[in-house]
């Protein structure tokens, strides 16, 4: 009985101490690490670095660093965060891969629904369908004809298994009921570099990675993947795939913030509150809008709404990945 009592007292003391530290989060002089499960220089990395700057002030001037832990469609970085101490000092910023990894990989060392705390969606990023500069098609109608005439000969680049461009490419092929040869790269930058160099034919990638190339006419732009045209000056004249005949085609890449399961409620609230402030930071908003991204402003900004949304995305992408046989293992 005494042993049980001592254990209970000790447990209560630990809980109280941990609660107190959670209320003082983030501690002065302690660094917060945001793990980005992709290489530096890519679109998700850019969002993370801009967000880190915007988060510093609402998190009491905390030092925030980015840790690029890339590989296996973002699952390596995800596993790193799932194993981290649940104290709020290791966070994860991931894109739509959070919902597609369960379908792409049969064996994972974590469970997306059970091993993370959901801190809020950050933004929605449209996709663009672009082609190499020497492609003979000058609009989507001509592109569709070119694709039909060159079945079995077309190379479709992507930034790696599980990347946004990989998923958009799968959906595009499914919509056209045709197959293209996938050319995976280790990141978005080398993929679009080879597209500009006429080494591959097509790429469907985020506006965060293609806007400058489209504006500079370094690639041929055919469409955006949103229901309506974008307001971004560089892309406002680019038609949607839907208005050009590919009905029902819509892909938007989103980014969200996560913590390891078991992170104290006080820390979750602190980070969520800081995120809501950061998403209104004028510099962050300006940077995102310049790239065609739309800042989140709905119930997905709550931990509950965020998790509900990710689960719905898992249910959406699972069948598409299965139908394409796009397993990574």
From TrEMBL:
Keywords: Signal. Residues 1-22 form the signal peptide. It comes from the Bacteria. The keyword Cytoplasm does not apply. Belongs to the UPF0065 (bug) family. This is Tripartite tricarboxylate transporter substrate binding protein BugD. It comes from Diaphorobacter ruginosibacter.
């Amino acid at each position: 009985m005494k042993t049980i009592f001592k254990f209970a007292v000790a447990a209560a003391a630990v809980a109280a101490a941990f609660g107190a530290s959670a209320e003082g989060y983030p501690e002065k002089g302690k660094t917060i690490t945001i793990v980005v499960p992709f290489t530096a220089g890519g679109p998700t990395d850019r969002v993370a670095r801009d967000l880190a700057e915007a988060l510093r002030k609402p998190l009491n001037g905390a030092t925030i660093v980015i840790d690029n832990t890339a590989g296996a469609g973002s699952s390596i970085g995800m596993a790193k965060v799932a194993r981290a101490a649940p104290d709020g000092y290791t966070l994860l910023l991931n894109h739509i891969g959070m919902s597609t990894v369960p379908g792409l990989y049969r064996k994972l060392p974590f469970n997306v629904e059970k091993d993370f705390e959901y801190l809020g969606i950050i933004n929605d990023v449209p996709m663009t369908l672009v082609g190499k500069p020497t492609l003979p098609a000058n609009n989507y109608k001509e592109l569709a004809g070119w694709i039909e005439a060159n079945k079995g000969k077309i190379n479709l680049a992507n930034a790696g298994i599980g990347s946004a461009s990989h998923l958009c490419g799968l959906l595009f092929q499914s919509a056209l009921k045709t197959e293209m040869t996938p050319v995976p790269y280790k990141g978005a930058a080398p993929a679009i570099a080879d597209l500009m160099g006429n080494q591959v034919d097509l790429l469907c990638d985020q506006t965060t990675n293609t806007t400058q190339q489209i504006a500079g006419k370094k690639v041929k732009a055919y469409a955006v993947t949103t229901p309506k045209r974008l307001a971004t000056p560089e892309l406002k004249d680019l038609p949607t795939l839907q208005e050009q005949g590919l009905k029902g085609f819509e892909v938007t890449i989103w980014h969200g913030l996560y913590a390891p399961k078991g992170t104290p409620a006080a820390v979750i609230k602190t980070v969520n509150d800081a995120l809501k402030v950061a998403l209104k930071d004028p510099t962050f908003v300006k940077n995102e809008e310049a790239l065609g991204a739309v800042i989140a402003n709905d119930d997905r900004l709550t931990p509950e709404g965020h998790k509900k949304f990710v689960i719905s995305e898992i249910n959406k992408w699972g069948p598409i990945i299965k139908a394409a046989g796009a397993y990574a293992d």
